[in-house]
Hints:
The complex is a heterodimer of chains A (151) and B (216). Chain A is built from five helices and four strands. The termini of chain A are far apart. Chain A has one domain (28-143): Cytochrome C3. In chain A, the strands form two sheets. Chain A has a two-stranded antiparallel sheet. Chain A has a two-stranded antiparallel sheet with strand order 3-4. With 151 residues, chain A is mainly alpha-helical. Chain A is elongated. Chain B has 216 residues and is mostly helical. Chain B has a single domain (3-209), classed as Up-down Bundle (Fumarate Reductase Cytochrome B subunit). Chain B has helices spanning 3-8, 10-37, 40-43, 47-58, 63-67, 69-87, 90-100, 109-132, 134-137, 142-163, 168-185, 193-209. The interface between A and B is medium-sized, with 24 and 26 residues.
Amino acid sequence: MRRGYFLVWMSILGIVGLLWAVNLNAQPEDILLDDQSVFTSRSRPPVEFPHLRHFDDAGIECSECHHRFKDGENIVDEAELEEDGEGVKCASCHKHKPGFRFEPDLDPTQRTLQQAYHRMCTGCHRQVSKENETSGPVTCGECHPKKKEPK
Amino acid sequence: MSLYELLRGPLLWLAFGVFIGGMIVRVVLFFQLSTKKDKPIYRFFSWKWLWLSIFHWIVPLNETAKKNPITTAVGFIFHFCLLVTPLFLLAHGVLWYESWEISWWSLPETVADYMTLITIGCGIFLALRRILLPYVRVVTTTADYVLLGVTLAPFVTGYLAYHQYFDYYTVLILHMFFGELMLVVIPFTKLSHFIMFFFSRAVTGMEFGRRRAPSW
Lengths: 151, 216
């Protein structure tokens, strides 16, 4: 009887442990870049960003995109990449600036949110496609497709 | 290399090269010819008549504008939208930024969208004018219609691409192709008036100016 209890408890512990471990590595699959508080007026549909594909299919490390620079070095720690973590969202540092101009960005820390997105996404896609590898979209409509616009 | 990369890379360089190089050659040839055929113009060279003539025709403040106010207005709006829309389009600005890290102000996309439609509308008006008015038709050749088509094609395809009508990628490729085609044909065709306008206006202005008869 005692042995039975032991097995039940061990099973529960095992399942909880497994769920906890799985949750540690849980990554959002697709993220809709659609922060209504930031982008109040839009002329293009929001981008549906396939987060999971970037490290599952493309094998990209977290810190290749997520960054927090100090003295020219990316010091982001993967453990801090949780919700509200400083290096997790582009918008924590790159602020949206209304208007219709991409400022010349000699200082990357001053990039606006839109600039940061465009540089990070299409910049990388263009670079990878130059190296003759399969890459992500680079044209306006492929990232901002009208068909997927939420109703 | 994909078709997109080809059109965005080497063919774009080629298009800009032919366009800018071709226009420089056109201007040089114009001056060479003028030193042979119209020497007197240099004796009567006048900055005053040069600028006055260009100004009166670019604004437009001239007899033709008074006689044909509708055509003048359509032509003026057409040229304004034709030049301003592509240069200040947000999507083009993003490309300049991504390629060269340079930037300037862009139009709101909705405004640019309407300006594209206005350009196409004015272009259709100009085509109809050539077809319907007998005195315009007699001086019209097939090349005029083709050139108007080449000019409007980037706007039509640009409009379709922005709204993502039909197959987006195909439309975008066509848009880039027609844009580059337009640049390439400018130095070899009537579209060279883009630069040559200033020279012919200046010469006419000075020619009439020395007779104290304004050419506007």
